[in-house]
Amino acid sequence: MANILSGAPSLAIDIVPVLARPMLEMSGVSKRFGTLEVLREVSLSVQAGEVVVVIGPSGSGKTTLLRCINLLEDYERGIVTVDGEPVGYRLDAGNQRVRLPEREIAAARGKIGIVFQSFNLFPHMNVLQNITAAPVRVKGISRAQAEARARELLAMVGLSDKAAEHPVRLSGGQQQRVAIVRALAMDPKIMLFDEVTSALDPELVGEVLAAMQQLARAGMTMVVVTHEMSFARDIADRIVFMDDGVIVEQGKPEQLLFSPTTDRVRAFLKRYNDRYRI
Amino acid sequence: MKEFAPLLHGYWYLFRGAEMTLLMAAAAVVPATFVGILLALAQVFGNRFARSAVVGYLFVIRGIPLLVLLTFVYYLLPLTGIDLPPFWGVVVVMALYYAAFMSEVFRAGILSLPRAQWDAARSLGMTRQLMLRIVIFPQALRLASPPFVSLCANLVKATSLVSIVGLWELTMASREIVERTLAPFQIFLGAAAIYFCICYTLALYGKYLERRALVGH
Amino acid sequence: MPLDPHFIARLIPALIEGAEVTVELAILTFAICLVWGLIVALAHSTRGPLSWIAGAYIQIVRNTPLLIQLYIVFFGFSMIGFGLSGFASGLLALCIQNGGYMAEIYRGGLQAVSLRQYEAGRALGMRRATLYRTVIIPQVVARIIPPMTNQAISIIKDTSQVAAIAVMEMMKVAEVWVESSANTYDVFLGVAVIYLALTSVAGLAGKLFERQLAFAQ
């Protein structure tokens, strides 16, 4: 994504041209936890450069959906394809699901960046090591190159001075921005965000949302699970509403948030409006 | 002060005994740690057969006194024809015994890592081997260090049991002096003081590690 | 000649006799130390010289081997002319050591039940006695059952060391039989099985106790 050699100014992320084929394709994904059906034949298509925000009540399956994309959660039915390549399972000649070998799954995960609610930085490494560990050891990039890229990305989110610090010394907002950078360092084709501001103090939320806005404007394909409605309205190209394991409705923000066609969406938004006022 | 004369005369002998104690403990700690890690890995990652085998081993070893194992290896070993010097015989027994306790400590360390760390490592495309090497084990070992050090101190104390089967170390040395000088209080107190110095130092180190392990979690 | 039924038929009653002594020692130690350990823990929690003495006591008995403590008690007392029997010395030494360990268990349990529980209760207007009775004590008891169970198992195994001062508990009986017959293997098997039975019973009792307590809440 970044062109270190071009000497291009501050935008470290290139604009990605829109491809005809979707960047992310999920078809018929079903998952159950014991007897509980968490995802029911969910299908979702995300174009390159598109920002899709998933909203819905808790227990609707939105986090599980995200985690199925890079096979952090296993699913019983369905196929996930990122950038044309299947992740986790592929269809053989007889249209049966076949699990891919672990090596390929790991490689596919390298193309999918994910940021978690609880940051999940490695506490025993400093910020720079956190960011460079995967590029160096998984992709085989030279340490010098990885570090240069890391510093570039850190500058982009305004954390250049924290490169040698350990995560424990950073605020929640700073840790989350480092987590975003760590995922970006692998040059992913798509970035997933799982309620990344839910665990933050309110005054730290802004800096993380700003970083995500930067990414969106630079053309990164993003799937964001959040309940920050105003942020959803600002950043989303499309909003998807999930409830009870299915996609109930999806559409452009103005359309879905202000004139939804389904009762369930209306009820959900009303409850939200009563509390927060979009 | 005159009463402590036997100790003043014999303390050098006790120190040499302590040397042997430390040698024995050091010789046992290394294989114990190694086997302990293997047992922990088998329990966490192994198949059902491996896991049951390990659980069975732990149950037996932790339910029988070390002295029983030492005594019977001491009597059994000559019969099996294995030509092993007694020193190594007891070292092997102690290593296998403490490996059981260490495996629990390591297993707890691995399992107490939040799932989130595994998620993050996997999401970055790391293979299991890489993930274990640079993310899981460094943290698990850090968490396991305080109880591990505590086990090491127990091992040092356990070396005293080999005196019962006739091997020479600090406790045996003190018994010898007591038989000669008939001054059990002073001599055994002296031996206790030496053990105390070793074990208390380890305990303090363990406390230091405990405080360090809490930082950053 | 392993697994000789005639030999085993003669062996088992003798081992059972020794096991009776083992169990006696273990139960007495555990019961006495439940009280003694509490006393030491309470002394340790005060402010002043008593706390320091209790603290030193705990550190000393935790960092010296049981065997040395055993020798000090046994030989030391006979030197003063106070001649304690093997059983009594063993009991005394075991109580001295486990008093220290149990004090630490009590301390851990008390610390774990957080200060906030106490504050919350007081804020609700509870009197201190009621607060302790209905909130603090039940939680402390629930928390210390697992480590106490482990301590009980540890005590059962430690009784084997009393063999060193010729008390006819099970280990000593076994030693005598091994020395007077060639059937080391059978003796080992018998001893191991009985110790495993004893420690398993202790472990199960602890788990049952835990379950009962959880049920009652």
What does this structure look like?
The complex is a heterotrimer of chains A (278), B (217) and C (217). Chain A is α/β, with parallel strands linked by helices. Chain A has 9 helices and 12 strands. Chain A has helices at residues 62-69, 102-109, 127-137, 143-156, 172-184, 202-217, 229-235, 253-258, 263-275, and strands spanning 24-33, 36-46, 51-55, 77-82, 85-87, 89-91, 97-99, 112-115, 190-194, 221-225, 238-243, 246-251. Chain B has helices spanning 5-45, 48-63, 66-80, 86-111, 115-123, 128-158, 170-181, 184-214. Chain B has one domain: MetI-like fold (Orthogonal Bundle), CATH 1.10.3720. The longest helix of chain B is centred in the N-terminal third of the chain and has 41 residues, at 5-45. By secondary structure, chain C is an all-alpha fold. Chain C has a single domain (5-216), classed as MetI-like fold (Orthogonal Bundle), CATH 1.10.3720.10. In chain C, 83% of the residues lie in helices and 0% in strands. Classes of the chains: A alpha/beta (278), B mainly alpha (217), C mainly alpha (217). Chain A binds chain B through residues 70, 72, 102-103, 106-110, 112-114, 116, 118, 120-124, 133-134, 137-139, 166-168, 182-183, 186, and chain B through 114, 116-117, 119-128, 130, 134-135, 138-139, 142, 215-217.
Note the topology.
The complex is a heterotrimer of chains A (278), B (217) and C (217).
Chain A: E1 24-33, E2 36-46, E3 51-55, H1 62-69, E4 77-82, E5 85-87, E6 89-91, E7 97-99, H2 102-109, E8 112-115, H3 127-137, H4 143-156, H5 172-184, E9 190-194, H6 202-217, E10 221-225, H7 229-235, E11 238-243, E12 246-251, H8 253-258, H9 263-275
Parallel strand pairs in A: 3-10, 3-11, 8-9, 9-10
Antiparallel strand pairs in A: 1-2, 1-4, 4-5, 6-7, 11-12
Chain B: H1 5-45, H2 48-63, H3 66-80, H4 86-111, H5 115-123, H6 128-158, H7 170-181, H8 184-214
Helix pairs in contact in B: 1-2, 1-4, 1-7, 1-8, 2-4, 3-4, 4-6, 5-6, 6-8, 7-8
Chain C: H1 5-45, H2 49-62, H3 66-80, H4 86-112, H5 115-123, H6 128-158, H7 170-180, H8 184-216
Helix pairs in contact in C: 1-2, 1-4, 1-6, 1-7, 1-8, 2-4, 3-4, 4-6, 5-6, 6-8, 7-8
